[in-house]
Amino acid sequence: MFSSSKIRHTQLIKQKASELGFAFCGVSKADFLEEEAPRLEQWLNQNKHGQMAYMANYFDKRLDPRLLVEDARSVISLAFNYFPEKELFTDTDDLKVSKYAYGTDYHYVVKDKLKALIQFIEEEIGEVNGRAFVDSAPVLEKAWAKKSGLGWVGKHSNLLNRQMGSFFFLGELILDLELEEDGPVKDYCGTCTRCIDACPTDAITEPYVVDGSKCISYFTIELKEQIPADVKGKFENWIFGCDICQDVCPWNRFAKPNQESQFQPSEALQHMKRADWEEITEEVFKVLFKDSPVKRTKLAGLKRNIDFVKKSC
């Protein structure tokens, strides 16, 4: 493909991505992630994925997008803001839910926008072979976002962007279309260790390395059995997910409220108090979290988390 066509196609895609509400869009070559291979292998060998067995599946596919999409040429990485206009659960007595779960499940919202972007590409550029991914397949999304210039991976292992911090979802299109590549940006964490210092369960075992099996998000979402007694009193009232390492990050002072109506919290969620959580019924759970990521825990899992925090007080 002529260079001018690559540039024009890339500009068209980035413009459409912006129209669809994506905050950032970057492109990298669909190639083997050579730097990530030993890191991922070591992380898995040290069992830092805990009971997240799926993380060990499809090792080769995680590192090579050409095994996911035949003749893949480009990985388009996109960031979608979810930072809320108003933070819920700010009283010291409140039980807390991660900001990403305030509204409709991001898998649905972002996936629909990615599908719309693929449809646009086929209408404006031509037929492509490609797939859209939103945290739902063996794709190392942070590695691709870093290669595509969306930001750098911070010491808390989340992607950071100088303009908007880290409160955003990542999605990818892997296509057999050759596009103009973006380069990575530098790391701006400097000597800051706020995320490491603030983590109450010491899940950030060293800068840039998170032991997933020690993370509050893991305990409250991924772990299906009883939460270990040795982390009692360390959850700081989090009952679904955790935002501590992001909340303390200086780069998140640049976070701006999202403009996505589907991410706005319901009136009912905004008014949930500790007593409401502790007395939650199946009926209330189904209505309150109808299209929410919180459905993942089911009522039994949420009650386990509430009970664990309650006993820790």
UniProtKB/TrEMBL annotation:
Keywords: 4Fe-4S, Cobalamin, Cobalt, Cytoplasm, Iron, Iron-sulfur, Metal-binding, Oxidoreductase, Queuosine biosynthesis, tRNA processing. Cob(II)alamin binds at R62, D135, L159, L170, S217, C242, D243. One of its GO terms (biological process) is tRNA queuosine(34) biosynthetic process. TRNA binds at K224. It comes from the Bacteria. Its cofactor is [4Fe-4S] cluster; cob(II)alamin. InterPro entries: 4Fe4S_Fe-S-bd, 4Fe4S_Fe_S_CS, QueG, QueG_DUF1730. Residues 177-209 form the 4Fe-4S ferredoxin-type domain. GO terms for molecular function: 4 iron, 4 sulfur cluster binding; cobalamin binding; epoxyqueuosine reductase activity; metal ion binding. Its EC number is 1.17.99.6. [4Fe-4S] cluster 1 binds at C189, C192, C195, C249. [4Fe-4S] cluster 2 binds at C199, C215, C242, C245. The active site is at D135 (proton donor). It is found in: Cytoplasm. One of its GO terms (cellular component) is cytoplasm. Monomer. Catalyzes the conversion of epoxyqueuosine (oQ) to queuosine (Q), which is a hypermodified base found in the wobble positions of tRNA(Asp), tRNA(Asn), tRNA(His) and tRNA(Tyr). HAMAP family: QueG (MF_00916). This is Epoxyqueuosine reductase. The gene is queG.
